[in-house]
TrEMBL record:
Gene: fbp_31
Record's protein name: fructose-bisphosphatase
Pathway: Carbohydrate biosynthesis
E.C. no: 3.1.3.11
UniProt keyword Isomerase present: no
CDD domains, A to Z: FBPase
Keywords: Carbohydrate metabolism, Cytoplasm, Hydrolase, Magnesium, Metal-binding
GO MF term list: fructose 1,6-bisphosphate 1-phosphatase activity; metal ion binding
Length: 186
């Protein structure tokens, strides 16, 4: 098994009113939309870039009481809005589907968090490293964002099991770096 930084491609497909394929082969991120008349995908966005800053976060707030202190601190600061230490209002978006949340972040910025949870202290997270965190992390990084488990870049984690789980924080670079700094005690 190899770390995510050895991937050669990553992508996903979203089905809905339109069918969208998002793909990286290591040279940026491209978005394709299915043209039903032609029966093929057409490039609709090239060189997708995630804004470094954001006013949106995606996290399952019902689990707040189970989070580690650095995550609680970050979310609390976001919720304090303009009057708080961040000096700006944030909006929460939570689709409860990593692919859909990452898609929104690729389209308009934001930060997605599925952190470690005290209910199962021996598990490092819920999402699977090899086939959830690594592909989504690489897409986000290829679009100028960042992906971490709070302490280490997702793509640098050496897997030890096929279904290994990790904590995930990814999206707009400055927000991910802020959460990471809280984990390191700064």
């Amino acid at each position: 098994m190899q770390p995510g930084n050895q991937q050669v491609a990553a992508g996903y497909c979203i089905y809905g009113p339109q069918t969208t394929l998002v793909l990286t082969v290591g040279d940026g991120v491209a978005m394709f939309t299915l043209d039903r008349e032609q029966g093929s995908f057409v490039l609709t966005r090239d060189n997708i870039r995630i804004p470094e800053d954001t006013k949106e976060f995606a996290i399952n707030m019902s689990n707040m009481r189970h989070w580690d202190e650095p995550v609680k601190r970050y979310i609390d600061e976001c919720l304090q809005g303009k009057e708080g230490p961040r000096g700006k209002d944030f909006n929460m978006r939570w689709i409860a589907s990593m692919v859909s949340d990452v898609h929104r972040i690729l389209c308009r910025g934001g930060v997605f968090m599925y952190p470690w949870d005290k209910r199962e202290p021996n598990k490092p997270g819920k999402l699977r490293l090899m086939y959830e965190a690594n592909p989504m992390g690489w897409l986000v990084e290829q679009a100028g964002g960042a992906a971490t488990n709070g302490r280490q870049r997702i793509l640098d984690i050496q897997p030890t099991q096929l279904h290994e789980r990790v904590s995930v924080i990814l999206g707009s670079k400055n927000e991910v770096e802020r959460v990471t700094s809280y984990h390191s005690g700064t």
